[in-house]
Amino acid sequence: MKEIHHWIDGKEYKGTSGRFSDVFNPATGEVQARLSLATKAELDHAVARAAEAQVAWGATNPQRRARVMMAFVGLINRDMDKLAEALSSEHGKTFPDAKGDIQRGLEVIEFCIGAPHLLKGEFTDSAGPGIDMYSMRQPLGVVAGITPFNFPAMIPLWKMGPALAAGNAMILKPSERDPSVPLMLAQLLQEAGLPDGVLQVVNGDKDSVDAILDNPVIQAVGFVGSTPIAQYIYERAAATGKRAQCFGGAKNHMIIMPDADLDQAADALVGAGYGAAGERCMAISVAVPVGEKTADALIERLVPRIEKLKVGPYTAGNDVDYGPVVTRAAKENILRLVQSGIDQGAELVVDGRDFNLQGYENGFFVGPHLFDRVTPDMDIYKTEIFGPVLSTVRAGSYEEAIGLAMSHEYGNGTAIYTRDGDTARDFASRINIGMVGINVPIPVPLAYHTFGGWKKSGFGDLNQHGPDAFRFYTRTKTVTARWPSGIKEGGEFNFRAMD
């Protein structure tokens, strides 16, 4: 059985805990590797070594650090297929979706090549008599990233790129479910010129998370996962004086107005709701058609599209629409929530409960489901299902539709489909949600903007990637400077007050 270990000080580091986590092939249900889980002592060792390595890395000028990012971009492109293969085999994503996962992370690394500009401070000439003031952005030191299973390339890249480009060292704790790609990325960074010890990849479970939160050397923690864990990490990090950005769950609504292009909206819903088996925090899981006529016409268009979805392993070809979910427990939870929807009175229009893929009976595949006439009191509406399940909530008016999205506890992403500019503008202005799409179903910002949700989808005041990432991974030092004046005339050394 293959064993997967840690990456510490630029080389594979075999764990000593004797504790392992199984890494499955989601398509077959078979264990394909065992992952070594770190002890607290191993985590603390990695942090101590990172702190030593960070001193020289932080003192390296930003342009040289950016050159490492530039080389890293080339190496990721070189090994794109190799990385995607490893990602698909552990996560279950289709091969094109796996490449998209890597590509969206790669775009953040490309943005980080501009770190020298992003790290510039401010300068004020003659703030007082002979006095200049300037600010510097300096790295925090050692920071940590705790990343989820659903984007095993993108989210680690979102964390490590800005953190390292800003001069920090990073402890990365990836998901135990699909750990290979983060380790491969660490190896590529070493090849790109990153000094040993600046990026440490430590695999672990809750014990490692708590060790990160309790370690006094670590100055900041970035997390993506479920809301309960996001809130736990944010509160515990704050209690120990760490900076934290923690992103949690979602229940993303897409409002379909009567004037919308319904074929376009139906296509968007199928891609946004069922892509990656629904295991995306930006997936659309709630469709809100406005008016009974709109709802009936939308359902009529959705059903044949959903019934034609091809579900299978990534090895079945690029025409597979989505693959298995990540674990058997995830599959069981999805089917439990589907049954709750039936029990609570929702209409199951497309029933994927009996989906069975010949030759892959033990895999973690879930057929597509479509609910209609869902109400806000139902569990399938309140809970993030994280599976291929789309719920339809019929609204009588635009105000009722926007009220549904605004009153939900999650506020990650949302979208509206309409031809009316006034409606779209009002929606974008009023909605209390962090990322908004107008005729765009999954409004994930590009790398030079920032990604982040509101309400219980995000904890912390700075978002991921874009300029916010460099603000998060640096702190500002402000210098007030005055050189003695009048040396040519004999010098005057008293400090005069600013006028």
TrEMBL record:
Please give the InterPro entries that the UniProt record associates with this protein.
Ald_DH/histidinol_DH (IPR016161), Ald_DH_C (IPR016163), Ald_DH_CS_CYS (IPR016160), Ald_DH_N (IPR016162), Aldehyde_DH_dom (IPR015590), MeMal-semiAld_DH (IPR010061)
- Might you give the EC number(s) for this enzyme? 1.2.1.27
Q: Which Gene3D superfamilies match?
A: Aldehyde Dehydrogenase, Chain A, domain 1, Aldehyde Dehydrogenase, Chain A, domain 2
Q: Which residues form the Aldehyde dehydrogenase domain?
A: 19-479
Q: A Pfam family this protein belongs to?
A: Aldedh
Keyword NAD among UniProt keywords = yes
Q: Which UniProt keywords apply?
A: NAD, Oxidoreductase
Protein name, per record: methylmalonate-semialdehyde dehydrogenase (CoA acylating)
Q: What is the native source organism of this protein?
A: Paracoccus aerius
